[in-house]
Amino acid sequence: MTTQSETGVEQRRRLVTEIPGPRSKALHARRTAAVTSAVGSTLPAYLERAGGAVLVDVDGNQLIDLGSGIAVVNVGHAHPEVAAAVAEQAAALTHSCFMVNPYEGYVAVCERLTQVAPVRRTDGDGGVKAALFNSGAEAVENAVKVARHATGRDAVVVFDHAYHGRTNLTMAMTAKAMPYKRGFGPFASEVHRAPMSYPLRDPEGMTGEQAARRALADVETQVGADQVACVVVEPIQGEGGFIVPAPGFLPELARWCRENGALLVADEVQTGFARTGDLFACQDEGVLPDVVALAKGIAGGLPLAGIVGRAEVLDAVHGGGLGGTFGGNPVVCAAALAAMEVIERDDLAAAARRLGERITAVLRPLATDLPGIAEVRGRGAMVAIELVRPGTLDPDPTSAAAISAACHAAGVVTLVCGTGGNVLRLLPPLTMEDHLLDDALDVLSTAITSTLTTDR
Ligand code: PLZ
Q1: What is the CA(416)–ligand 1 centre distance, in A?
Q2: Does the pTM of the predicted model rise above 0.85?
Q3: Which atom of ligand 1 lies at the shortest distance from residue 165's CA?
Q4: Which listed residue, 49, 100, 365, 417, has the most CB atoms within 10 A of its CB?
Q5: Pairing label, strands 155-159, 423-426
Q6: Angle at 10 between CA 30 and CA 56, to 5 degrees
């Protein structure tokens, strides 16, 4: 586990100014003049450093991080082993482009990914292979490229509330117009949206299998099963609101894909690398996708992404058909090898389960007491609270924003998600110490209770 001595950052919340403080405000003024307003920030407290689960801003405030840079620093900020691997690699070979002169790190990361990622194998296949890219969107986009090439089909099936990225193809695959899509069309064609399994909002008692049949019946009617290259699904939806499909949903999608010659692509960009209490979220129900898209937690804070799939699927693409200048750069590969080592050696999947139990033990009683909380859900250290207007299922984004703002003012970084902007989500670094989590949960509970019990 990360301690103060390892990262140099004391694992404690400490406020010395208001949030954001004067130095952050000065930087924000500079930013406003130079950085386009099209790029936003959740909390404009400008950071100087971070270690473990604590962020230190330019005014000297120490904030507890419940977001992990959107599920990236699962091993904690500036993990000493990741930082050392990066420094050593940067001094030895920073860049060559794997497509020009290759190097061992890229190969080693792919070897590791093919060993650990849940991928369906078939009799007589040539094993599992991988390729590396820079971002989650690029990984998803390449998974679709591979699926289209391997099947010779065009259609891509995605779900309500899905988030897959901000490139043209992945925007088309993402469900939410604002802020991701509006004004950015026309979008890529042959992307078809189907209803997701969303137990809170589905008809009472609907099973995962029934929810999958509902989605697939739409696909069969509107697209045709024999036209589908791939079904792309987040095993637990991230930006869409930490929506956990009912058990049986993912297995039924997998079965349908196998039966109809379509590929199942799991977008594990947000759920991967121990976040949900398994190394990958698909493992919870033993689902084996044909291709897995990975990013975020893969490299302990450095930008790396990848796809993993059966060799016969990935190798269907012509030589030179996939790539990019920076994909799997030597420095990010060194970081990934260090981060993956930490995740497995320190059993961060078990740590995620423990964090999740501690979080839900505090939040579930609040949900019982407060009618504004429709549900506390998630798995492992990926936990969310969905806020609604009491007595209805109407989203309550105002309360989500108010609770989040109260946490920020008190030095706890929380994030909001959900198609309706009404879901508070917790994604702590998996190495977070108990006393720090307890402090953050105290702040959060107070913010929730005072917001939801005040007349608005
Ligand atoms: N697939 C499941 O969660 C990224 C988006 C933040 P990139 N989620 C955070 C924002 O507002 O841009 C994500 C994801 C899933 C794909 C992506 C895309 O990953 O690395 O942001 O491209």
Answers
A1: 14
A2: yes
A3: 18
A4: 417
A5: unpaired
A6: 10
Atom nearest to 140 CA in ligand 1: 16
Strands 228-233 and 155-159: parallel
Q: Is there a contact between 233 and 194 (Cβ–Cβ < 8 Å)?
A: no
Q: Which residues line ligand 1 (CB under 6 A)?
A: 70, 135-137, 140, 163-166, 234, 238-239, 267, 269-270, 295
| Separation between Cα atoms, residue 274 and residue 278, nearest integer Å | 5
CA 163 to ligand 1 centroid distance, Å = 7
For residue 77, the 8-state DSSP code is B
Q: Please report which helix (H) or strand (E) contains residue 322, including its range.
A: none
From the CB of residue 131, how many other CB atoms can be counted at a distance below 10 Å?
A: 25
